[in-house]
């Protein structure tokens, strides 16, 4: 079984690409969604309280992603602390998850910060979903209902598009000029071969 990493900068459309793989009956592990669930665990809540005693990321017991985002996107040290806490747990969840798909030709792990966390060695191949910066800014503003300055602050925490293009094994172009499904179908054929 091959392990395929799927990444892309914010607003690139990697979740849309992941859903196309799912339609093709490819098992997809969504790292960001798993991370969101981890924030509800009591051990994570306690650890966050120790790491950031001046911040309360839970209101009425519900995790406030916007509070955490505001902190980490303005403070690289805080982002590093969060990554050191959450990413080993996400990897542990992936290792458990993947055991259920041993007989599949390949699985996909979607991860926004695959390159930033230097996870390349864990995958047989890596797909980068690429889109121009202005396109991505517009998509994020529409999706998250936030202003351009907040979008730009978030984007600073990810590697530039040109670097990710060089690091990836495959590129899916998602600027709206090329259809996504044929690009995914081509890769599906490549990865399905034994």
Describe the fold and architecture.
- This protein is an alpha/beta fold.
- The protein has a single domain, classed as Rossmann fold.
- It is 51% helix and 14% strand.
- It is built from nine helices and seven strands; from the N terminus they run βαβααββααββαααβα.
- It has a five-stranded parallel beta sheet with strand order 2-5-1-6-7, sandwiched between helices. It has a two-stranded antiparallel ribbon with strand order 3-4.
- A hairpin with a 2-residue loop joins strand 3 and strand 4.
- Helix 2 (31-38) packs across helix 5 and helix 3 runs antiparallel to helix 5.
- The longest helix is centred in the middle third of the chain and has 23 residues, at 76-98.
- The protein is globular.
- The mean pLDDT is 91.
Topology diagram in text:
Elements: E1 2-7, H1 14-23, E2 28-30, H2 31-38, H3 42-51, E3 58-59, E4 62-63, H4 65-72, H5 76-98, E5 106-110, E6 125-130, H6 133-144, H7 148-155, H8 161-167, E7 170-173, H9 180-192
Parallel strand pairs: 1-5, 1-6, 2-5, 6-7
Antiparallel strand pairs: 3-4
Helix pairs in contact: 2-5, 3-5
């Amino acid at each position: 079984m091959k392990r395929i990493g799927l990444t892309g900068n914010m607003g690139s459309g990697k979740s849309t690409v992941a859903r196309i793989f799912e339609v093709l009956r490819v098992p997809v592990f969504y790292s960001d969604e798993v991370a969101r669930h981890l924030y509800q665990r009591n051990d994570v809540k306690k650890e966050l309280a120790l790491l950031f005693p001046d911040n309360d990321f839970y209101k009425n017991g519900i995790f406030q992603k916007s509070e955490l985002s505001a902190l980490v996107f303005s403070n690289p040290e805080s982002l590093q602390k969060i990554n050191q806490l959450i990413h080993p747990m996400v990897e542990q969840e992936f290792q458990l998850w993947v055991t259920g798909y041993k007989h599949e030709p390949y699985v996909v792990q979607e991860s926004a910060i695959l390159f930033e966390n230097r996870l390349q060695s864990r995958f047989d191949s890596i797909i980068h979903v690429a889109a121009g910066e202005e396109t991505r800014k517009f998509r994020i503003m529409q999706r998250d209902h936030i202003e351009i300055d907040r979008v730009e602050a978030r984007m600073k925490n990810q590697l530039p598009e040109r670097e990710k293009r060089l690091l990836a094994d495959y590129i899916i172009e998602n600027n709206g000029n090329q259809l996504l499904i044929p690009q995914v179908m081509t890769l599906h054929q490549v990865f399905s071969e034994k």
